[in-house]
Amino acid sequence: MMCTVRRAAIGLAALLGGSAVGVAVRLALFALGCLTVRLLSVLSLAVVPTSGALDPVYTHALLRSLADIQLQGLAIAGPPGDWLHATWPNLFTESALAHWAPARLVIQPGSPVLARWSAAAIAHAGVLGAGLMLVRAGWRRRSSVMLAGLAMQSQVALGILGAQPSVRELEATGVSFAASAILPWLALRGHALSDAIDPAWYPLMPALLVALALCLAYTPVAVLLCLRRRLGRMAVGTALAVIVASAACAGAMRQDVAAASPGPAGVAEISAAPRLTEAFDRWFDEQSSAMPPPVAGPSRVQIVGTAYHYTYVVNGQPEVIKGMGLNTQYSQQLTPPERAAQLDSDMQALQALGVNTVLGWDPAEFDGVLLDAAQKYGIGVVMPFDLDPEADYADPGVRQQLHDEVLAWVARYRAYPAMRMWGLGNEVLHKIVHPAWVGPQDPQRERNAEAFSDWLVETADAIHAADPDHPVTYRSAEDAFVDWVAAAMQRRGGGPRSWFVWGTNCYQDYLAHIVDHWSESGLQSALWVSEFAPGGLAVPDRPAGFSAMWAAIRHDPDWVLGGAVYAWTRNGPEGVDRNFGLTDDGVPVDGRSLEMLSALFHTE
Fold it and tell me: DSSP readout, 437-468?
């Protein structure tokens, strides 16, 4: 009897001790993992691949974002945690942040999801591997070491269950964006992760993702043991048992929630949409009724000022661009009456949100119907003209044909009251050449980039001559290609063009650097942020991300005219639209971000 009790006590001690050791090791490895991710991202920035297989701008942005992971502190559960937080607030956070765990390292809100998962993978792999080897070491001797190893693995599995990944969070890492931007030759345009998942699988997705996380964590130690030729059936069986049991728990814990939210993302966050929609509908009605009627007749838009002191003036009134990207596919999916009704609904919602400008990328979507819908609600439009980066801009025939098409387009839409700016191309140089900091260019591509830049400035001058009442903007990836256009303006002469506005597209904290240093860019023109969204952040962190990016935009009002959020709807041609889209054709899927943007725009 005494022997049995003693064995039970030893076994219990081994389980508790293994769990405690596992927690301590995981916390230490997680902190080490955060530092490792930051260090690797910084080192990698110096050796961004120059191969044409990788997009240097967005690869650079991805690596830069990984360095933004920050530890907030250690949360200890219960009264001890409260005392530690009160005594050393710089080291210990509120005990409530430990959630159900005895201790938890808390990441600063706004840290990128991919960096957090990478650090967690390092910690999980270390503890699971150590536990697996302890199980193997204690198996033959039937010692308590085996129980300690099982406890270490179980507490990691429980930790993953406590913070289960979702498809939407996985997409927030930028997987679909990276696939379409960094590896365009590999990713299918318009595809997101959720596109490939049948709705019947939504209840099982949390379980599959938990199993995937555990498999990835076990991989390093499995490889190590294989290399040592000591991987036995027992080790494999133990690992599979933990994976299967944890995945089963995940499926049971999340099945009801996922099944209740059968939207394209298949996650619980969307279940709040009906409540948010009702609240927004009431608020939209109140705001819309208070708006003055739009001014009739053609609009007159000016960029007043010189030498990095500019004001955006619409029909005689100074204005800050509070924009929203419309990357819709309505013209392909809806009948003309349905499209007109959807655009009317969108514009009403955008007006209530505080948006005063919309922009887009597909000329087929931006026509008189959209301009009329925007004018009805007092919203301006940046009209897009799509330019093919593969065209030969050194060919006189190509140049003339495009020139004529652009001027015909200007003549068609210049008299619409909702007209604000002419959007001549988007990230064209980005698709022709790589940034100068990458290294030497391909000579043929360099010649085409120079020819395009000359054509761009020449055509912008022609637009301004034909329509001096609306500025011209060129939208570019970050600030990587300013030199090309600045050099073309010098070659063509004519001095600074205050009516020419540079648009920058940025999804990282690097936006603050771009706007703060714009006066050093060498291009004497106003700046606006033609695309912005907090890339790589978890969905709950996005409202704060939008707030920080809008603060960066408004930090230099002398030369920054405003900015436009990407994007209004998930109904777009690219996988990234499913990631950043704020609504499903007007139905909010990220209500908290919409509320934040409304507060920012109305405060402005």
Answer: GG-PPPHHHHHHHHHHHHHHHHHHHHHHHH-T
